[in-house]
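Hi there,

I know you've been waiting on this one. I reran it after we fixed the sequence typo, so this is the corrected version. Both the input and the resulting structure follow.
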Amino acid sequence: MTKPRRAGLIRRVVQLSFAVFILVSSVRHSVSIEHLPSTDAYCPFGAVETLWTFVRTGTFVQKTHPSNLVLGVGLLLGAVLAGASFCGWICPFGALNDLLTWIRRKLRLPEIKVPARVDRILTYGRFVTLIAIPVIAVLTAKLWFSSYDPYRTIFSLSWVFEFNLAEQWPAYAVALGVIAGGTFIPRFWCRYLCPQGALLGLIQRISPIAIWRNKTCGRKSSSTLTFP
């Protein structure tokens, strides 16, 4: 097995492991009579949403707690050292997007090709959500985006254990829209809407690890991590 294929296999295993961990935690939270952590506790971006409130008042925005700050600091340090590797190796949403692409290819469904100019414009959507979500969280003093967050909707498994179409239909609609987009546009959420991806992209600019593409590999060029 070549090194790129071996690295790809390792990445898939790591992705799957974290996704399974989140799903198992969600099941335990839903069926246990004890107060076990929900998916909100494992979201590093919760640190961004609660940071200002914590610094100013010493309290956390509703649904966030110290685990979010710990994960947020870990994500920050990891991003400085290894760029946005979190997205491709750990984030369960990244694993879901890769799964959707695999399903589309197996079903021989067409991929939607976004024109380069439109693609560049749409990528700024991540920075809109990066600014809007924390600002509104500070103003409302609650984790308001959790009611619409497709990560929480999908991986909390609330649609399995607490399905409520009358009250939760906006969250279900957003999740289905993101899934549909990710099916036909590879990494739709990650490329155009993910606030955490936008933050990691900014931090990656000061990362000591650079990513370069091997141009000799043609269209299917491989990416290699290297220390500049």
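Quick highlight: Residues 3-226 form one domain.

Best,
R. S.
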